[in-house]
Specification:
- By secondary structure, this protein is mostly helical.
- It has one domain.
- The protein is about 70% helix and about 0% strand.
- It is elongated.
């Protein structure tokens, strides 16, 4: 059997590998930034909604409480809770002796690379669900202004 020829890794390849792993490690931080921006919107929009209502309806601004209004605030509340969950640190079991764990063994502990991927995936799912509910709340709020 003939040996497989090898060569040393070039500086460019080392840099690309380093950037690849930095990108994996930074995904969770990126999801935190997305959630922070989402939190700002989720806190601001209901206040803006109340302000627009006051400005368009005058001093005696009232809005009949109906299913659409209740749904809007329910969606906004659940979206806010999901965003706060995404920003709250979650405890993960990680086996620091393993780089990439077999997904069937995640209950025993994640590998180091798995930790970064699963943490970002967890936050991304919460941020997406929060965004969908938040915009559903905005849609319901527009139905109350009619």
């Amino acid at each position: 059997m003939k040996p497989i020829p090898t060569r040393t890794i070039s500086e460019n390849e080392k840099l690309l590998r380093q950037k690849f792993y930095e990108n994996i490690a930074a995904q969770s931080d990126l999801m935190d930034k997305v959630s922070e921006r989402l939190l700002t919107l989720e806190l601001g929009i209901p206040g803006l909604f109340a302000t627009v209502l006051k400005l368009t309806r005058g001093e005696d601004a009232t809005l009949p409480i109906n299913a659409a209004l209740n749904l809007a605030f329910l969606f906004w509340l659940v979206a806010l809770i999901l965003t706060l969950m995404a920003l709250t640190p979650k405890k993960w079991t990680v086996d620091d002796a393993v780089l990439k764990q077999d997904p069937k063994k995640f209950s025993e502990g994640l590998g180091i690379e798995d930790y970064f991927e699963q943490s970002a995936l967890y936050k991304r799912r919460l941020a997406i669900a929060s965004s969908v509910l938040f915009f559903a709340g905005i849609f319901c709020a527009t139905l109350t202004l009619g």
